[in-house]
Write a structure and sequence with these properties.
72% of the residues lie in helices and 0% in strands. It is built from 8 helices and no strands. The protein is globular and about 40 Å long.
Length: 149
Amino acid sequence: MMKHRKDGIDPVARSRSRRRALQALYAWSLSGGDVRGLIAQFAHEQAHEEADLEYFEDLVRGVLRHVDELDGALAAYIDRKVDEVDPVERAALRIAAYELVYRPDIPYRVVINEAIAATKRFGAEHGHTYVNGVLDKAAAALRSIEAQQ
C-alpha cells in the first residue's frame, strides 16, 4: 500500500477519485440528474476501494457549479463546440479545467497526466491525444507562470 505524502495526500486515492469523478460526470452528461444523487451513487461504489471521497465530491460539485465557465475557458483550445466533444473526453477536460482554475495546489503537469490516464482508460482509442493537446494549450494560458518554469 502506498504511503501518504508528507502533506497527507495519497496520490493513488486521488487518481481513483478523478476516475470516479470522470465516470460521474460522464453519467451526468448523458442523463442529467441532481448532484446529490450522482455523488451518492458513485460515493457508494467508491467506498469499496481506497479513494479520496472528499476530493471526488470537490471535483464533481466544482465542475457542475462552474460548468459554463469551464466550458468557456476550454472553448479557445478545442476545434469544435464543447458539447460536440466525446463525452469521456469532455468530462476529462472539464475536470482538468476545474483543477487548473480552482486547484492551484495541484501542479499543472499532474492535472494533464491524470486527465490523459483517465482518457486512456475510459475514452476512445486516440482520445488521450486530443485531451493532451487541448490541455497543453489551456495550461499554458491558465497557469502561465507555472508553465513557464
